[in-house]
UniProtKB/TrEMBL annotation:
Keywords: Transcription, Transcription regulation. InterPro entries: HTH_MarR-typ, MarR/SlyA-like, WH-like_DNA-bd_sf, WH_DNA-bd_sf. It comes from the Bacteria. This is MarR family transcriptional regulator. Residues 4-139 form the HTH marR-type domain. The lineage of its organism: Bacteria, Bacillati, Bacillota, Bacilli, Lactobacillales. Gene3D superfamilies: Winged helix-like DNA-binding domain superfamily/Winged helix DNA-binding domain.
Amino acid sequence: MDRQQEVLKTYIALMRVHGEFEKLVKKDANRYGLNVTEFAVLELLYNRGQQPIQQIGSRILIASSSTTYVVDKLCNKGYAKRIPDANDRRVTFTAITDKGKELMDQVYPEHRDHLVEFFEEVSDDEILAMKKTLQRMSHYE
């Protein structure tokens, strides 16, 4: 095996799959008047509960300056709200509103089904192995 060639081919395959994921998420988000980043923040708040605004960017891999902008847009649409930390004035949480939860109750099951469908050609063992490998690689600095 030529490791360099296989690494390059694997990189290309990962980028292609990433592009397909982006298209899937964009299509799901756009159907509800959201962009991909807004959808990612709402999905995080929906599945993980309120989050410090300072940590949202690192959780969904966007710049902190963009995080504030996206949270502002979600607040203006009524899907999210800011909650000041009672113990630390430097910290502000972002939480999903009832309106945001209603939207995600409608959107998320269909989105989840699209993701499951995306993996229909992949066995359970392959999914677990891929997840383990990608988790190990995601700690690369």
